[in-house]
Amino acid sequence: MQEPTRLFALRHGQTAWNADRRIQGHVDIPLDDTGSRQAALLAQALAGEGLAAIYSSDLQRARATADALAAATGLAVQTEPALRERAFGRFESLAFTEIEERWPEEALRWRRREPDFAPGGGETLEVFAGRCLPAIAALAARHAGQAIAVVSHGGVLDCLYRHAVGIAPAQARTWQLGNASINRLLYNGEGFVVVGWNDDAHLEGA
Predict the structure, then answer these.
(1) pLDDT value at 21 more than 90
(2) Residue 87 carries which DSSP code?
């Protein structure tokens, strides 16, 4: 086992499509005004954590959140495309009610969280987890004994939580994945341990 890496796994700030409950996936949506305020408050909350590195998805909602943290710490942001949200193909830009109206059978398979289901042009849960989880483990392994921030997306953090706690992909979610919340984990070279999840105390008034 390596000396543990302290991992701050962070979801990007709010976007207009988050507020409208539209599927974003790989569509490159910017933060809205609330999201920008959330990113600034998140940066203030983590400025004193002694971060050694900041990694981010290359989608602008994550990158803008990471940039706020970089400004507060003096670190550069390193982008990693493997940290992108799941690709939802033809579901992207739509609300669930619209998906249900157009493709009711596919909407049901998605709601059931079938690991081998992919919307047209999108990724299965299996492929998605196989992309993002090894990437996060590799980043954590580079920084034994240090603290790093990984700024990503709700789907990525969902995969990470399930992997760390041992929850099957098809099991219903009972935990929160708030925008710009702080999720703390340790990585020891063999796996992740959740220390704290969905801490949003810093966002009061955002």
Answers:
(1) yes
(2) P
Here the tokens at position 123 are 């990724």
> Token pair of 37, please?
């305020």
- Domain of residue 71, CATH code: 3.40.50.1240
Please identify which of the residues 26, 49, 80, 85 carries the catalytic annotation: 85
Residues 28-40: tens digit of each pLDDT: 999 999 999 999 9
Confidence at 141, pLDDT banded by 50, 70, 90:
very high
Domain with 198 in it: 5-203
Alpha helices, H only, the chain? 16-20, 33-46, 60-73, 96-102, 104-111, 125-141, 154-165
Average pLDDT over residues 95-121: 96
Taking alpha carbons only, the member of 197, 200, 132 closest to residue 165 is: 197
Residue 183 region, left (φ>0) first, then alpha (ψ -120 to 50), else beta? beta
Q: Is 143 a catalytic residue?
A: no
Q: Are strands 77-79 and 192-199 parallel, antiparallel or unpaired?
A: unpaired
Pick the catalytic residue from 12, 26, 143, 153.
12
Which residue is listed with tokens 């004193």?
Answer: 48
Q: Examine the residue annotation and report whether 12 is marked as an active-site residue of this protein.
A: yes
Considering its fold, how many domains does the chain have in total?
1
Please tell me the pTM assigned to this model: 0.96
Helix (H, G, I), strand (E, B) or coil at 23: coil
